[in-house]
Amino acid sequence: xxxxxxxxxxxxxxxxxxxxxxxxxxxxxxxxxxxxxxxxxxxxxxxxxxxxxxxxxxxxxxxxxxxxxxxxxxxxxxxxxxxxxxxxxxxxxxxxxxxxxxxxxxxxxxxxxxxxxxxxxxxxxxxxxxxxxxxxxxxxxxxxxxxxxxxxxxxxxxxxxxxxxxxxxxxxxxxxxxxxxxxxxxxxxxxxxxxxxxxxxxxxxxxxxxxxxxxxxxxxxxxxxxxxxxxxxxxxxxxxxxxxxxxxxxxxxxxxxxxxxxxxxxxxxxxxxxxxxxxxxxxxxxxxxxxxxxxxxxxxxxxxxxxxxxxxxxxxxxxxxxxxxxxxxxxxxxxxxxxxxxxxxxxxxxxxxxxxxxxxxxxxxxxxxxxxxxxxxxxxxxxxxxxxxxxxxxxxxxxxxxxxxxxxxxxxxxxxxxxxxxxxxxxxxxxxxxxxxxxxxxxxxxxxxxxxxxxxxxxxxxxxxxxxxxxxxxxxxxxxxxxxxxxxxxxxxxxxxxxxxxxxxxxxxxx
Length: 511
Ligand SMILES: *[C@@H]1O[C@H](CO)[C@@H](O)[C@H](O)[C@H]1NC(C)=O
Ligand SMILES: *[C@@H]1O[C@H](CO)[C@@H](O)[C@H](O)[C@H]1NC(C)=O
Ligand SMILES: *[C@@H]1O[C@H](CO)[C@@H](O)[C@H](O)[C@H]1NC(C)=O
Ligand SMILES: *[C@@H]1O[C@H](CO)[C@@H](O)[C@H](O)[C@H]1NC(C)=O
Fold this sequence. Notes:
8 helices, 25 strands, binds 2-acetamido-2-deoxy-beta-D-glucopyranose, 8-stranded antiparallel barrel, alpha+beta
């Protein structure tokens, strides 16, 4: 069941809001948003996200060209993969999906070559800013990169597909490097892709964004264009993914011609094909180091029309957390609808048995406050049944209310106290900034309130904007997160050994 906010968000998405919400700047404004202490870097970062001059969406999207993953991606399951998609001007496409055993995308198991045709249709009514498309698959071929991968897939196809697929691999055939087997052919009407949980529904929802990345070299003025291709999301429930029509997005691909710099993975993926799958550069496996403050790196979209940015504070000393969820009705996060503040405690992390490289945690939400930001939300909250969401009849725009005494807010689908079973991972990006990946929310809009609903993939990463004690903050200068005027003397240097040691120690202490 979708909570009421789904409908609310849909209404809000189609009502026009004019007010622009601003990150609080003055002491007085800080006061009005409760006890939130804004770190300048965090504040700068969220402001930057709302800066419309840097991001524009191309409508209708121009897909022609070569699009690539910028790193190792994780899909529900988990599946680890990289992608390289080519769209031609005659609407034909050729897409490579490279699958791996490991979360670093260094140990390829098999590759898919997908050919077909794509036709853009119309602006999506459900997901604002997206374009709907129809696609038709002509062929899907598979190349195995080891004997083991071949056996595993053969067994899956054998188990789950009808008689027509039994012979897709000749029985007793041993692995031949480079041999391509046909999983799907429109001509012979054979389709053995279901056993792999394979569908290309991601192509039915597309969005292209242009960003301007400032140049970091001295003497270089201006910025570099980065183009991102957002394709539809994959359902978190394996049994649903073959039928699910996306309403959200996956991690975006970038144009091979206009991607962020530096991007060590980009060139490798760009040059790959089914016979030479990309093997990404080795990277250190980092323990999850939560302490500090983290913010969204983009306006995020949740399946079914919810746009938001997030801001979290984790206190490692007492394992407590605070989170701010800023909701919007538009894909550039400029028309606020409501803000949720939530807080509580979290458990010590343990390595995930299911998702290599991930850490399992449980989050308890004990307190929450809500600030409606537009009239649609005010009206909805104001008319909720007495005792079900704060003080009925007393809601007004911009005023925060504690919903802890009413055990949450029925209309927004918030129940208190509440436990969520989470999956986290941290990474350093190529500029040595810390990224935090929090588990993907169940696509059906429910909450991961049982261990068996724990996520197996991740949402868009948050970036650390301040450390536990401010130690890291100086490593993230506004210049670095994107300001026109750049000055190399302020550009980040790689973390010194002492700091790496410090991080390692922090982890030990945090436990
Ligand atoms: C497929 O399944 C049949 C029994 O259902 C079995 O005899 C055969 O060996 C299997 N083939 C493969 C390649 O696993
Ligand atoms: C946990 O510690 C931080 C300071 O490290 C403090 O600001 C916060 O209020 C504490 N939270 C709880 C629930 O004790
Ligand atoms: C909220 O409800 C109260 C009581 O029903 C009403 O007096 C008030 O005008 C409403 N406020 C808004 C903004 O709708
Ligand atoms: C860069 O910064 C240094 C010191 O902060 C300053 O002396 C220099 O003029 C700056 N250069 C530019 C191009 O802004």
